[in-house]
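Ops channel
N.P.: pipeline sanity check, posting one input/output pair.
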């Protein structure tokens, strides 16, 4: 049996648009610069054959090792694309990263090292923002998740978590003998600036933990940087992101009533207390020396809490609220 020091690692990347080509090229460079070498890359393209060919050509021209590029001719969406990547992966560990992230140079090494404990079935880590421009840096860490980032605020040491973050996660190969990513929970609008109920990574993680009795580990050293484009702080994106976060939490609680972690939503309660008793008081004081930024944070926080509550209510009482199938556009 392979030891943690020589496990093979497959990295699955999915994408559907040539608009992300430069991001993908930089991601591939960050993979090539990894300190760990037993890596293969599975790139899954859909909707655009040009995207597939250009990534293949880039890999060949720039000596990106062990890259397999495949096209998804089946059902579209994040979950089917990930499942196709799994079919082509040969690694003992299969990782998933978004097409607009950059890996820290020790990402692969730290990922593989995390599997020294046989009780670990999956690993996740923080995703720090790469702002499109400096005017966006006012966003506080408590609200990074709005921009599809997270530093798992409050967690500084490796520990068990309920779910892995889809932009930065990996699992033992054996995990996929128990479950695959669900198309029902992996729907995503194919236009970047719209948000849908994408919770396939969360649903997969909870389902996997319950079926195996094993742990998903948060390792603060399994780090990526995630690009944050300006549209992610637009009103449309914010209200959609907040609404569907609330809705998905209510949905998962209904589905997994037997999982104490999902039922209690401990992480969400902890974050809410931090927002109410740390972020808001600090922002109130900030009005005295930086009123513009303070107002941005205060206004955003109130809007986010409102739409999260609305989404959560819709998930609990869909017939009463009438919001269960609504997208914000």
């Amino acid at each position: 049996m392979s030891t943690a020091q020589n496990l093979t690692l497959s990295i699955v990347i999915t994408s559907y648009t040539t608009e992300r080509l430069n991001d993908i090229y930089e991601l591939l460079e960050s993979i090539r610069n990894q300190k760990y070498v037993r890596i293969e890359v599975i790139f899954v393209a859909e909707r655009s054959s040009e995207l597939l060919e250009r990534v293949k050509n880039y890999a060949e021209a720039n000596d990106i090792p062990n890259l397999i590029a495949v096209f998804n001719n089946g059902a579209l969406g994040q979950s089917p694309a990930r499942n196709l990547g799994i079919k082509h992966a040969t690694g003992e560990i299969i990782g998933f990263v978004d097409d607009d992230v950059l890996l820290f140079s020790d990402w692969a090494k730290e990922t593989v090292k995390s599997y020294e404990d046989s009780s670990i079935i999956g690993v996740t880590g923080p995703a720090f923002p790469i702002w499109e421009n400096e005017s966006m840096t006012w966003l506080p860490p408590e609200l990074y998740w709005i921009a599809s980032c997270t530093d798992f605020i409050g967690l500084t040491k490796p520990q068990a978590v309920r779910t892995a973050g889809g932009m930065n996660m990996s699992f033992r190969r054996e995990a996929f003998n128990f479950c695959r990513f669900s198309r029902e929970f992996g729907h995503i609008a194919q236009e970047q600036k719209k948000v849908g109920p994408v919770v396939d990574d969360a649903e997969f993680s909870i389902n996997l933990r319950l079926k195996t009795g094993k742990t998903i580990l948060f390792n603060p050293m399994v780090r990526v940087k995630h690009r944050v484009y300006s549209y992610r702080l637009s009103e449309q994106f914010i209200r959609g992101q907040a609404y569907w976060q609330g809705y998905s939490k209510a949905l998962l609680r209904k589905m997994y009533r037997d999982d104490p972690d999902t039922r209690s939503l401990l992480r969400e309660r902890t974050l809410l207390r931090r927002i109410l008793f740390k972020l808001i008081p600090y922002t109130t004081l900030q009005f005295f020396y930086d009123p513009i930024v303070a107002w941005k944070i205060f206004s955003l926080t109130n809007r986010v809490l409102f739409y999260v509550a609305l989404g959560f209510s819709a998930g609990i009482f869909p017939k009463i609220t009438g919001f269960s199938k609504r997208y914000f556009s």
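N.P.: looks fine end to end. DSSP finds ten helices and eleven strands in the chain.
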